[in-house]
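General statements about sequence and structure are easier to judge against a single worked case. No coordinates are needed to read the tokens, only the vocabulary itself. The sequence in question and its structure tokens are set out directly beneath this paragraph.
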Amino acid sequence: MADKKNKDKNENKLNQQPEELDREEQTAAGEDNVQEEKSGKKPREKKKFNSKKLKHGAMATAFTCVFIAVVVLVNVVATMIFDRYPITFDLTENKMYSVSEDSEKYVKKINTDVYVTILATEEEFRNIQYGSDYTRQAAELLTRYSQYNPKIHVKYVDYLSNPEVLNDYTDTQTLEQFDMIFETRPTDSEGNEFKRLSIVKPMDLVNISEEMEQSINSYYQNKETFIEYMGGSYMAFLQCAYYGVLESSNVESAFTSALMTVADDDPVKVTFLVADRKEAELDHFKSLLEANAYVVDEINISTQDIPEDTNIIVVPAPKVDYTSDEITKIDKFLDNDGRLDKHMLYISSVEQAETPNLDEFLEEYGLQVQRRVIGELDAQYYYAGNQYNTVQYIVGESYLDNFEKDNATIYAPFSRVVKTLFDEDGMKRTEAYLSSSPNASAVSIDDSQDVEQSGALYSMAFGSKVRFADEQDEDQENHYSHIIAFGTEQFFADEYLSAPQFRNSDLIISLFNGIVNKNPGVIITPKTVGAVTFDINEKQANILKYAYVFIIPAAILVLGLVIYIRRKNK
């Protein structure tokens, strides 16, 4: 009965109008409030269940969880990708930790395994006591090389704790702590494996200041003696870094050169001929050749024969004439038993005395280096108010397939006139390469009052002998021996070969590559390293400032407003 009464009561309540229900609820609420007042308790407000608020809160929580999960996932994936591929950003002002485009292309084309062993732990190598800017750059570049090409294998060995690592090398006395060993293991014609090594030492990673070089030459005669006196390349590196005489980085050049040396199956050898005749110092030129995988050697032409494996000889502006015996050695070298394919770079100077023996030999190849210096009358073709500081332009055509000669600035100050005696003469031919403007004059070295208005004058030219291909030549190509005659040693001066505004380096390497049929090398300019290992320029600083101060906050604000408005309207 009680259940039936309750049921009837509920049905009656359902049949009531909304106003009647509200009055009943208010009456009941009033009675409850009276009871609570009598008991001294504060009336409680009844909380209404808000399903919309709960729904938005759940969505916000879910969105936050998904966002955090996505960020974590992206971070994990990005870390894996960055470890495997060189996706990094170099914000240093001079791109110290970046690899040049030419080096990157070359590294990616290496098709033989190259093993790089650093005789130190990675921690010690990266954080060397002094000069860590350079060793850290070296470590980063090696990492990038291995990322560009999986055939490049890099490992660090604690040399002090594991001296037995040197047992694998025959020339162990030249190895020391922090040396970097580049090696390949090719096989000879009989299938026997052998090693090809190139050692990069700490001092090879840097270029020292000109003042320091002058001091070394004054007190130690040469850099090798200085390094030996300091107790090795590592100690010399520390000393130079401590006293702040390291001027720029040579890391990329040294590493790329080492890679090319060990990975090139047929390296080209360049031998410099000296004979105590006050020849020109061409240290930067030698370094440039080595950086492009040329093997550089030096002999005394007076007492030694030219090595048979030499491809190019360099006569570096001797101040005294060669003897007839020395000329005979050069002649036999270029003839190569009738096979040719040997070449010579002859560099002259305004400081040379008369050289009748050398002059007569050059004339056989159709070249004459006159005792006159090129002077320009047009100011746009010379520098610093000196008409002999001439700018030359390229008129040659041969062996310049990989050189953009249009608008190329070639600096050839104080150049003697190089004259071509004929275009062709039997199996010989000549080709002019570098020319002055049409308004140049030829001034006598011996008498500055003796001036000839000669028009366009050449500071560099080729003289060649040719042997045409016959049935015995498998390649069916003609064979040449060349003499490249330069009118000035200033073309090869350190400051001009390394100056980015001049194309001297590009030109000489392109010519060398062309005459020996060598694949194009890599020309790398030194990178200056300051005391700060991480630096950005003003443009990059502004980009970061606007991005973090304005763009990112504005984006977050807009996103917040959009979410707020959408929630409010739902």
User: Anything to note?
Assistant: The first strand starts at residue 114 and ends at 118. The first helix runs from residue 2 to 15. The two ends are 48 Å apart (CA to CA). The chain has a mean pLDDT of 79.
